[in-house]
């Protein structure tokens, strides 16, 4: 029977791998390794470095090219569905080529955690595998690494927080009833449109990697600073993965005020 392990690998730092993740990778007969367009080759190298750190032989790695997502038109949901179908077909092609018997343990390395703002589980559902054939190995999320790197707590005492996307922030603004937002998947710098008085931002890119960048401060003062640094980093590396946390002024803890003053 074919078993597919979706393995959360954190943000690319080998130290983020859990013992469970190491066990799943070492025990896999085949590891699917996606490659995106040339300007993101460094991402594949990060995954390869993790595998080399675990002494995984090249013979157990199946490389495949990620299809591009259609981005014309306003049918975002349809675009994503088409893209997921195309990715699933690439997986199936790899499995048929490398495991023609249809049996074996397969691992796919997933940034962060497969259950948080990631579509790997939805893509895996297209393979028609039965109950128990797909297993998720949780990983450290960029949200956790962001807060740890800045030395802040994710939530204020007894208060909720919301994890959302740049698209949602742009289209709907700051949600009511919550003072702390974690914003992911924001290639459009949506924080530039936020006018919440006194809001602060904690931003990070390439978290956990040697090129990690951290910026923090009052949002109004940091909007253009972050956008400029982000553009510079993207040009330098050819890609960028970033995340940020926004807080309303009244939710900033005393310790965070001291950090912001020091940063300023």
Automatic annotation (TrEMBL):
Keywords: Cobalamin biosynthesis, Methyltransferase, S-adenosyl-L-methionine, Transferase
InterPro entries referenced in this protein's UniProt entry, alphabetically: 4pyrrol_Mease (IPR000878), 4pyrrol_Methylase_sf (IPR035996), 4pyrrole_Mease_sub1 (IPR014777), 4pyrrole_Mease_sub2 (IPR014776), CobF (IPR012797)
Protein name (database record): Precorrin 6A synthase
Listed pathway(s): Cofactor biosynthesis; adenosylcobalamin biosynthesis
Gene3D superfamilies: Cobalt-precorrin-4 Transmethylase, Domain 1 (3.40.1010.10), Methyltransferase, Cobalt-precorrin-4 Transmethylase, Domain 2 (3.30.950.10)
GO MF annotation: an example: precorrin-6A synthase (deacetylating) activity
GO terms of biological process kind: cobalamin biosynthetic process; methylation
UniProt xrefs under Pfam families: TP_methylase
Native source organism of the sequence: Comamonas terrigena
Matches recorded under PANTHER family: COBALT-PRECORRIN-2 C(20)-METHYLTRANSFERASE (PTHR43467), PRECORRIN-6A SYNTHASE [DEACETYLATING] (PTHR43467:SF1)
Domain named Tetrapyrrole methylase: residues: 4-221
Domain of life according to the entry: Bacteria
């Amino acid at each position: 029977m074919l078993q597919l392990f979706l393995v959360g690998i954190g943000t690319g730092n080998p130290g983020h791998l859990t013992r469970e993740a190491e066990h799943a990778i070492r025990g896999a007969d085949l590891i699917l390794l996606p490659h995106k367009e040339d300007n993101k080759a460094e991402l594949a190298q990060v995954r390869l470095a993790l595998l080399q750190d675990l002494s995984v032989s090249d013979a157990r790695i199946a490389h495949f090219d990620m299809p591009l997502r259609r981005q014309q038109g306003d049918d975002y949901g349809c675009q994503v569905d088409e893209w997921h179908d195309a990715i699933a077909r690439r997986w199936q092609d790899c499995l048929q080529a490398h495991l023609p018997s249809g049996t074996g343990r397969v691992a796919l390395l997933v940034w962060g955690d497969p259950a948080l703002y990631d579509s790997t589980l939805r893509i895996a559902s297209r393979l028609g595998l039965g109950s128990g054939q797909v297993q998720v190995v949780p990983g450290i999320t960029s949200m956790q690494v962001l807060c740890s790197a800045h030395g802040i707590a994710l939530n204020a005492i007894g208060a909720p927080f919301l994890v959302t996307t740049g698209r949602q922030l742009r289209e709907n603004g700051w949600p009511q009833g919550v003072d702390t937002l974690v914003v992911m998947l924001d290639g459009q710098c949506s924080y530039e449109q936020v006018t919440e008085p006194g809001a602060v931002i904690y931003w990070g890119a390439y978290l956990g990697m040697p090129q990690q960048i951290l910026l923090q401060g009052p949002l109004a003062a940091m909007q253009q600073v972050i956008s400029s640094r982000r553009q510079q980093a993207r040009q330098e590396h050819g890609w960028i993965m970033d995340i940020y946390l926004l807080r309303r002024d009244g939710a900033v803890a005393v310790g965070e005020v001291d950090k912001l003053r020091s940063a300023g």
